[in-house]
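Pipeline run #58 for the internal structure catalog. This entry was flagged by the ingest filter as a single-chain record with no existing model, so it goes straight to prediction. Upstream metadata was stripped on purpose; only the residue string is passed forward. Reviewer on rotation: M.T. Logging verbosity set to normal.
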Amino acid sequence: MENYTTLIQHHELDALMRDGPVPVIFDCRFDLAALDSGAQGYAAGHLPGAQYLHLDRDLSGQKTGCNGRHPLPERSAFASLLARAGVNRDQQVVVYDAQGGMFAARAWWLLRWLGHSAVAVLDGGLQGWQAAGFALQTATIERALGNFEAAPPLSATVDRETVLATVEGTSRLSVVDARAPDRFRGENETLDPRGGHIPGASNRFFKDNLDANGVFKPASLLRVEFQALLGHSQANRSIQQCGSGVTACHNVLALAIAGLGEALLYPGSWSEWVSDPQAPVAAG
């Protein structure tokens, strides 16, 4: 059976859960303003068999003060977490949230970073699952230890120096910022000490990847929109960033859905960039 590598629809997931091969499912709900609300929501009701992943504790690593608000976890540590959660090599993994894929896309990207291609975001998330008439449960399950191991990455990252080269004009890479337009302009900044954006970056608000129903736009439309943004550049010549390397993954996913290839991620993103008081900043 062919694996799902970008999105999975609710009826497709239901079929896998009933007829197999049974996937491992992760609930990635989170709220940056209420850090325990995702876990509380999970306890109140989640997809059958789902396990919970917390953005700060599971999907991020240790902060140093200069590596951003949500640095990447250690590869070995995250691989061990997945094995303990029962993930096996080549097994289908499905991730979802209730925020339009905002946090599920981070989990999707991380699994690809560990070389696991069989991972998909549930299109429409928890709301779509319930709207389709499928049930939630409150019970948790114990899964046998999986044999998951990290493999060569399918996702690629860039560091601060690579991004700085785009600002200085010594790199042909482009930078795309996934934050809301007001924060990109330097307005209403409440999460980071400085407002604005990386000089030369363009803005693609991650929510623009979704339609009015909170599901991803058709691949053909995403392709047109991203090609208009990137021009003649390929996705693998674009650096995707946001506030802390989370919603940028949503744009990486959208580019993959569009069939435009694997974009680069700047994991530290704006929160790492402005940790250096000398970092160049643009506004407007």
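catalog note: The domain at 156-273 is CATH 3.40.250.10 (Oxidized Rhodanese; domain 1).
catalog note: The mean pLDDT is 96.
status: ready for reviewer M.T.
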